[in-house]
Give the backbone structure.
Amino acid sequence: MAGIYGAALHGGRARLVRVEALLGRGLSRIVLVGMPDAVAREARERLPAALRRHGFGFPKGKVLLNLVPAQIPKGGLPLDLAMAVSVLVRQGSLQSPVRPWLFLAELDLEGRLHPPARGTLLAALAAGSSKLAFAGVITAPEVASEAALAPGVPAYAAADLGEVAALLEAPGNGEPAAPLDPGGEAGTSLRLEDVRGQQQARWAAIIAATGGHPVLFQGPPGTGKSMVARRLAELLPALDPATALELAKVEAALGRVRAMPRRAPLRAPHNTISAQALLGGGQPLRPGELSRAHGGVLFLDELPEFARPALEGLRQPLEDGEVRLQRVREWATFPADALLVASCNPCPCGFLTHRRIPCRCTPARLAQYRLRVSGPLLDRFDLFVEMGPVAAEALDGPPGPPTSAMASERMARARARQEERCARGQVGRAGRATLEQLLATGVAASARVLLRQAADQLQLSGRGHLRCLRVARSIADLDGSAILEREHLQRALLYRRVTTEEGASTG
């Protein structure tokens, strides 16, 4: 008998589960073994009614259902349909399929199929990448298009057990589901020129999007920090197929996926978010907001208001581009290659750097506020932008450069230069480049001298030294320069955080 398969979610991915049925003598009962969860155990009460509703008898005596492999907990995805088909094949109501099938649906008492709440795409991907040569995936109509996103295995929709039986008896008569076209995923109308004034902040957004540089905007309330940050996501290019699939898998672990994503995501969690919700966790393990921003922007508005454990937990994932979660019985790795964008006020009242409104904070409150974000986390920002109030004439006047159209043109040329470097075996985007990779792209001698001087005067850490070079490389790409010149480094140094005293800093 070819395998009858369901799936379970464990360790952040789907595991195929073979469902075996054995009929024996004895009292009429259903025995389910193989570490099933409560949902799977409750299916024992639904199966007899569902099968009889569609004219299938349920065997009398002992029915043993074994879930293989036994050592993996079975949960996250319904196994009802797989167990029902296994019983029907074993008692001879259905012919044994020649090739294995994957069944993903819950059954009600009427034998109707209900979709999984999450994980459909993950299970279909597991079947498509398996060496077992699956004939297809059968699931509820609501998620058939999601299962169809997985390459290598067709997906079929069935409304009830009767349609499932008809499909298994004559697979050639079934019409595979098609994935939904994400064409309706239109972009927003957010433009850089909507932010009046703040030229340096807009250029910082362009540099950050070009090279993948974390950026922090600081300034009094109402200066446009959030506006610039949200428009930064619009500057990012469309997701490449590999990144889009990784992001779709993250979303599938949390819920349903309507279509393969194309645009870079923007995730902006509230500052009351817990460390688990931001980084991932729970039982079973699920990805957090950081992973949902994979390939896009994670925007943390009012950075000092976030809980300290949540912020400190970002440090390692931001460096590695992935989140590794480890628990006693489970571990998982989720992608987390997101661009960190944050904003904050200079003090609790917000007006420390305002030219007209005086600050009302006491020195103690000010010192406590500055300590809410650790120095090591601040050191992971490549760009620091101090934003001040905008003059009235700039608010009423025509928009000035840089505009979104100008940014798109210059960034397109910069990406073409990055692709040329990749073709030569050099680093592309500078956001994660090593020191050796940056030096290999060409750095002028005058720029190296300036960097050594700046490292002494600004007390740059080793990470700060590297991040200055990364930003300068992106500025050179925007200028169309193959060599990193002194002027590029000068402009990069304007975006460094200047430490004024221990525990205090300005942008």
